[in-house]
# Entry
Amino acid sequence: MKGIYYFLFVVSILASCRKDTTESPLPVVTSGNLNITMAYRFDSSMLQTDTIKYKNAAGYKMSITRLQYYLSNFKFLNSDGSTYSINQVCYLDAKDPNFSNIKFTDVPLGNYKGLSFTIGLDTSINKTYYLPATVENNNMEWPPAMGGGYHFMKLEGYFVDTSGTWGYNMHLGNNGTAVAVSLANKPFSITQTPSNIQLKMNISEWFKNPSVYDFNIDGVFSMGNMAAMLKLKNNGSDVFND
Ligand SMILES: [Cu+2]
# Structure
């Protein structure tokens, strides 16, 4: 009797094993990778840093010597109406090839209508020491005495007015000054082979639309100056409208 039970037991294991192997589907690829390349221009010119050659909306010739910022809170708008959210903070530097693009892995395959993201950090993560202590993140720290967290952006350079050449530091930080960007009509597809899209920032737009930012009126240092920072924030929502 025991022998028969043992025999049935073994047969059932063999049967279940065979069942498993024959019905196991091939691995199905459901996600792919997206590479976003950042590009920079000043109105109709591709950005050339460290040279006073661009004219801003207030009428000053100016240069860009530094442009460092964070993008976060990416949401991809699927054609079926759903949204794919990515919890990743991306540091970018217009002068450093090591921080000139963004790579997203494991994005669900599909045709996307567009995307939205934040220039800067959401309130929930804009906290001192929240980000890994890399050289780049440490350089972006916003002093705890001024509210803590991180710079959302450092945009610096020189400008020329009738009295000479002056430096400017457009620093954006503090909760309430992160910039919401929505590119609802920027279609891209995620396939099994890596996809590429480009995001192009028009630096000129930080200084206009809806309000002209005038260094001599609004200030050459925006850091901690909430009126100046809010003006930059409001101008910033269309800097990526290619
Ligand atoms: Cu600063």
In short: Residues 151, 171, 223 surround copper (II) ion (CB under 6 Å).
